Amino acid sequence: MRPFCASLDGGRVGARTRPGVDGLSVDAVAIEMTEGLLLRSAPYRAAARAACPQAGVQPAIDDFGTGYAALSFPKKFNMDYLKIDQLLTRNLASDCSDLALCETMVVMTHRLELKVVAQTL
Fold it and tell me: What is the mean pLDDT of residues 106-117?
């Protein structure tokens, strides 16, 4: 598949596809919002979050677990996905602490009836 490009600018979701991606179902697209975006002023955050359903895309918290995120973020910001940062996923086989953190995040995410994505290299 060729690249798909989307941006969240000023609370508007703008998306464009490159040739060959036409026909991509918009419900297959998630907009990843960094924790920094979620911590911006409330009006900007609300506009950015509201833009996702208007565009038919699913909102996701990017790099969860390694930045500013509090455990309340998934509930507070009404996201569809959490994306666990690769700093926690890359050593799962050799680091029992990373494994414990990831397992806990997956269970928490599923109990909140959200989807979870593990970022890899």
Answer: 90
The model's pTM: 0.65
Task: Give the Cα separation of 92 and 98 in Å (integer).
Answer: 6
Residue 60 burial (CB count, 10 A): 21
User: Which CATH code fits 26-118?
Assistant: 3.20.20.450
pLDDT digits (tens, 9 = 90+) for 41-74: 677 667 766 777 766 777 777 777 777 767 777 7
Written in H, E and C, the secondary structure of the chain is CCCEEEEEECCEEEEEECCCCCCCCHHHCEEEECHHHHCCCHHHHHHHHHHHHHHCCEEEEEEECCCCCCCCHHHHCCCCEEEECHHHHCCCCCCHHHHHHHHHHHHHHHHCCCEEEECCC
Per-domain residue ranges for the chain? 26-118
- Beta strand 58-64 with 81-84 is parallel
Tokens 């918009």 sit on residue:
26
